Amino acid sequence: MKLYDYAASANCYKVRLLLAQLGADYERVSVDIFAGDTLTDDFAAINPARTVPVLEDPPGVFLQESNAILLHVARGTPLLPDDPQVYRWLFFEQADVVPTMGGLRFRLITGRLAPGDPGAEQRRSGSHEVLALLDRELGRREFLVGDAYSVADIGVYGYVHVAHEAGLDLTPYPALRAWLERVAAQPGYMNDLAPYPPSSYADASRSIYD
Q1: What is the mean pLDDT of residues 161-179?
Q2: In the predicted model, is pLDDT for residue 42 greater than 90?
Q3: Residue 19 burial by CB count (10 A; 0-12/13-18/19+): exposed, middle or buried?
Q4: Most buried among 14, 103, 143, 180, by the most CB within 10 A?
Q5: Confidence band, pLDDT 50/70/90 cuts, at residue 80
Q6: In sequence order, what are the residues at sequence separation of 6 or more whose Cβ sits closer than 8 angstroms to the Cβ of residue 47?
Q7: Portions of the chain given CATH number 3.40.30.10
Q8: Are the CB atoms for 104 and 124 separated by under 8 Å?
Q9: Burial 183-195 (b: 16+ CB within 10 A, else e)
């Protein structure tokens, strides 16, 4: 397997976390999404959407979208239970977690928004709605799907565990904070999510986000 990824992307980190916890052997191909690497014709042939991560497995066959990759890699393992709630949470992560706290963190750190901008306020409000929902759900069980850790937890964890970097206070969400600790205690856990570098900042970037 080859994973085309970017070290500071939480979507990519989710895949790396799963691969680490499964002890999978793979080649990591670094793609600098803010230096124009995804804007080339060569990359468009791998992913017309010009995003990472992309998994190549087997050679010459490319799978895009982080949560699709999670489902593919976790097939046949205990991390993908036979429960449709797994799909519910992975769709929820992309539809509700990423646009709110993920988008807020990225835009604040890289200078695309200031904390008081209307766009930041909107994402902050949405983030707290998402965090409150997760806290209620996790107050009823230890993990998102039943009582076992799964790719549903990995998918949601990717952006939620760095919500504080978006200036979001997690103090009002005790069940969520306890869940973050349980995820970090899982066998094979690692956190190699890199900070956004200066090249990602609004005045220095060449990417699909500009």
Answers
A1: 98
A2: yes
A3: buried
A4: 14
A5: very high
A6: 4, 38, 54, 62, 64
A7: 2-78+192-200
A8: yes
A9: beeeeeeeeebee
131 φ/ψ angles, rounded to the nearest 5 degrees: -65, -40
How far is it, in rounded angstroms, from Cα 106 to Cα 201? 9
Q: What is the pLDDT of residues 135-166, one digit of tens each?
A: 999 999 999 998 899 999 999 999 999 999 99
Spatial separation of the C-alpha atoms in residues 18 and 177, rounded to whole Å:
21
Q: Does domain 2-78+192-200 have CATH number 3.20.20.70?
A: no
Q: What is the DSSP string of 14-81?
A: HHHHHHHHHT---EEEE--TTBTGGGSHHHHHH-TT--S-EEE-STT-EEESHHHHHHHHHTTSTTS-
